[in-house]
Amino acid sequence: MTLPASLRTRRRLSLTWRVIALSSLLLVGLVTLFTWLGHDNLTRQFQESRNQHHERQQREIRLALLRSAENLRQLAGLAAASPRLGPPLEAGNAEEVEEALASQWPTLQLEAGIDEIRVVDTQGRPMGRWGSGQSEGRLPIQAWVQQIMDTEIPITALRCATDCQQYAAVPVLVNGESVGLVVLSRSLADVTRQAREVSNAEVALLVAGSLDSRDLPEERHLAPWNGYLLALTRQEESLPVLQRAAGLGPVSALLQAPLQLQYQGQYLELSAVRMDEDADRRSTGYFLLISDISAQIQAINEDTRTLLGVGLAGWIAAELLLLMILLRPMARLRRIAGLLPTLASGGFDDVRAAIPSVRHRLPDEIDVLEGTTLELSQQLEMLELEVQERGDQLAERVEELAQERDFVNSLLDTARVFIIAQDSRGRISLINDYTRAMLDLDEPSLLGRHFVDVFEAGSPSLVGTFDTPQQEERTLQTPDQHIHTIAWYHAPLPSGTDGSMSRISVGLDITERKAAEARLTWLAERDPLTELYNRRYFQDALQKALWHESRGAVLLLDLDQFKDVNELSGHHVGDRLLREVTETLLLNLGHRGVIARLGGDEFSLLLEHADEDQAVQVAQYIDQLLDSLGFRAAGRRHRVTASIGIALFPIHGATPADLMASADVAMYKAKENGIQHWHLLSRTENAKDELQERVYWVERVRSALAEDSFELMVQPIMRLEDRDVKHYEVLLRMRDADGSLVSPSCFIPIAERSGQIVQVDRWVLRHSLRLLSQLQERGISLAVNLSGPSLHDEGLKQYLADELAASGADPHHLILEVTETAAVTDFSTARGVLQAVRDLGCRTALDDFGVGFSSFHYLGQLPVDYIKIDGSFIRSLPISPESRVIVQAIADIAAGFGKQAIAEFVDQEALLPMLKSYGIAFGQGFHLGKPAPIHQAFGFPLFSTLDSQEPPYPSSSRKRE
Asked: Measuring CA to CA, which residue among 225, 227, 230, 232 is closest to residue 202?
């Protein structure tokens, strides 16, 4: 580990100085902010005080003007009240008028500052005048006379021309009547003097507007304000200030707020007070006040400098204190920083030697950092050792991966499957030897081609559409012109660094399996001998016709004396007869409906949309066809006839089972009729016969369950290798009133239809377990059949567990059989029941296997231990190559799934060597052992300890041998 060159050569700025710089920047900013705030606060307070001072000045000056005007009015009133003035004024005697006021004029002029006295009559004609003032043409004498004559109220006015004069006009009364006016005028000198005293400032009197300025000096003309300065204190100092202020803004702005300006090193403040305008608004007068505020401004600046100085001193003191606090910790940090390059270069011992191991009582962050650095040095040292060790292991792993790569390459080239890798565009990037051999092409001619171009015609598609594992089937034509079906499995490969997708495809040649599946599918619906549809397909077709609510007929054919043909000429001749009958029916009636072989010599024909007459015509036609067949074998001619039963739907049944039962009854009626070979079952006949038979046998079954009048028999199942018998199948019989035994074919179908079969199954299970508890010590196992309805018995598992516990029987010696048809019809239920039984410890068997070839597909998924091959295949083994192939296939499949096979209906010694050669372990049939009562088979009566008064329990179905 070494320190990067960029870190070794870079000049560093100490953390201490970074802290000092940043804190200084912060503190300087704060000092500046506080100084500015202090200065702004002082300035704002000063400005507010000046605004208040300005308002006070305005009030004082206006009050002075008001007092001067009121005083002038009082003086005018005194003059008008002179007793010597009224009569001559009324008489219009000007000389007496002048004499009346001549004595008052000196006093008014000297003591009151009156500039002019005018006396006018009611017409506005001058009657006397003392002093000088504004010209008569500039005064609205006539307007004043008219106003006073109308209101008899004195008036005051302010008129500005070459100067500003205050006027007071008072009426002269004689006997309560106005006979003229006395008008006094006075300049604003006293008001100006009061304004200067109040404001302690220089005062100027400005007149703005229209006036005669011929007698005024030009330097007092302020053009921006359109006015003249009529009066001005300290003109040499004040006039330049006013001239400069006139250029800064209108005079009206000074009425709102004072104007501050700097002139010749002084801070000055200029404010204005407006006087009342002339009545005719020709001019406006203003008092201008010039105040020196330099002292206040300097005080504010001095305070600001003091704040700034105190702030800077505080900043310097804070930085010095911070430097003293950080000096030692920063030295420790610099030491650690200087050790980090050593730590990076692997100098772990040097780092540990340079950092003291002394622990402080109150550790701080640097203590933690030093401790962490010491711990990090130890961990890095351990990590370096571990990395070195892992490097050695990685080298070994790389060598192993190389060996695995060679093994995978060898596996790809030797595997008998298609293995292809594709890139993101679906082009082939890798191919194994088997694929090249099957295509008879070399690798360069395949690499880069699209996958679909090689294995199926069509346009290429991006692999991006296969971003999840998928399966598909494609066809492939090899150079030998054979068409192969390939099952492909596509799986996405990890994306490359560029984010592109790819996939690997593995293909398996399933051509032979597809052919076998097609054959098995065909066998599931067909009779292997005649290639007609079988019973299962026929019942499905009949069910569909009933679902569509269509009308039609079912014809059931049973060949007469067919057993004689088998016995006289052999089974192979009987098979040939069946095939010829099939050909005849298909050739002539194949277009009319579904033709099926139900088993043995029974055929059936489904005619949809056929009425009663059409069904009878078809039956007669079949009779004619069979009669003209003329079958010959071994020099013998056999006449072929058949008994035909006709049932109409939905008249004679709403379910396939009811219709087939009705057709079966009709067929037997036809057999009983010696003249006509067909019989159409009438509605009344069908209902009566079926009801009577069903009621009778339902009652018989109920009575047998209540009175325990059933009886068990057993048939041995022999191990073919040494002909040892340790395995028996339990068979059920009914004891008749006369003591004879009734075959299960008489009552089992009725029990199944009436729902009693579950109770029958439980009866058989209960008594079989009692028997098994007495036989299991001999190593004997019993096989008990379960009917289809018992597969739906939810209480079966609990019932079986309770009976096993009550009887003490070993569940391993109990084998429960279900028929292939019941298992395949409701596969999921059958699998669940069989697994539940196996969970209890019992074994299971699949009975009558091979009747429906579709069960091959489910065999591997059914939890059974034995497979009992249907007897129809076993009996025909010596004469039927097809049966031998089927039995061999069933035996191989059973062995492949780890199940043992049992051959049923072994009725001759010649079958045993064949069965052994097929690997079939067990056999059952009349040749090996016929059904026998319990006491005869085992030497003791059944249920010596069983209480016959206990109520019966429901369970499953029984065989009918």
From this structure: 232
